[in-house]
Specification:
Elements: H1 2-14, E1 18-19, H2 25-28, H3 36-48, H4 65-71, E2 75-76
Parallel strand pairs: 1-2
């Protein structure tokens, strides 16, 4: 069942970008290179600081500009809902 959920999330994000200001940790893990620890770090960071650009994601430990370049078509910055 767990694998089915991950598969469904992966398929849904194949057609839409992951919103780094609003995606759940589980949704963030659908991105290659983002495990649960990094996803949790992203969620924790955005509770204090909203992402204004994709480059702001580099403020999260373990995420660099190479990751952003590689995934720029899979990411988006939506409205901040803190």
């Amino acid at each position: 069942m767990k694998y089915l959920l991950v598969l469904l999330l992966s398929v849904s994000f194949a057609f839409g970008a992951v919103d780094i200001n609003n995606a759940s940790a589980k949704e963030l893990t659908t991105l290659k290179g983002i495990g649960i620890k990094k996803a949790d770090s992203i969620v924790k960071y955005r509770k204090k600081h909203c992402f204004k650009t994709l480059n702001d994601l580099t403020a999260v430990k373990g995420i660099g500009s190479k990751f952003i370049k590689k995934h720029k078509n899979e990411l988006k910055v939506g409205a901040c809902k803190r």
